[in-house]
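Extended Data, panel c. Modelled sequence:
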Amino acid sequence: MARRSAFFGMTRTGKSNTIKIVIMAIEKLNEQRTQDQQIGQIIFDVNGEYTFANQQDQTCIYDKLQDKALRFSASARKVEEHEDVLVIQYDFYNNATLEESFGLLCDEIALLKQADYFKAFMGVSMFDREEYREREDQEEYNRKKRTNQRKRAIYKCILHRAKFGSAGYYKVYFHRFELTDGEQDKQDKARYKPHEGIPPEQACLYFENLDFNNLHDKYKQDKDYQALLTVLKATHVSGYEALMGLNHLHSHQGGDDYKKNHRSSTACGKGYIDRSLYCFHANARKIHQRTL
């Protein structure tokens, strides 16, 4: 079974050279071991001294081990400068990892906010479950999918207002709310076609201008809508503005779930030269240990 080791390095404390010696010693030991005995290493590199070549040495640990190591960064500049550097943030708009990134956001909110409506926000159910397909008829299953898509659209608007930047071409897809008044609903249907995809700003204006009292009664029975719209429509720090301090967790360059990459690579004995996991979050050690 593969083993893992983790180092938390700090400069100017006499640890740097020792850590380099230990890293290379472990790699030398790996050369004498079989594949299932490999030791994967994780380096939390606050200052980038093991990850990127510095002016003084013109080299770094990564340069010596790049055929065995992966490096991640939360810095968009580093990702752009180095083709092999993987972004450590999620793309919070990526549907493939949306549930995972929402869970991370909720973990962070729980540390910062105790307001009841944020608790309601964190408890929102907006992700499809395939097991429902077997228990329900197709019409009911499709209705729930449309409902969840609409909720996710409001959530993405909250991200947009909180300045979680999206790619310029990004569009939000959802089915509009039906109105109680038949004539108004007919006009609204002709005016709005969000199921065809609209930019995030346009989606925000649609939801922000909603009069919930004019919506069909079936929507009022679902408390998740109110929980999401309360955060979106808030115009003070207790609403979406409270999430602005968390937008460093996001990058539209983010792709796959990086935690899965961590687990699979350390299990194979690969090393991680990770410049930013420690830097971009104060509790990074705890978070990373939890993901492993």
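Confidence is low (pLDDT under 50) at residues 264-269, 271-292. This feature is highlighted in the accompanying rendering.
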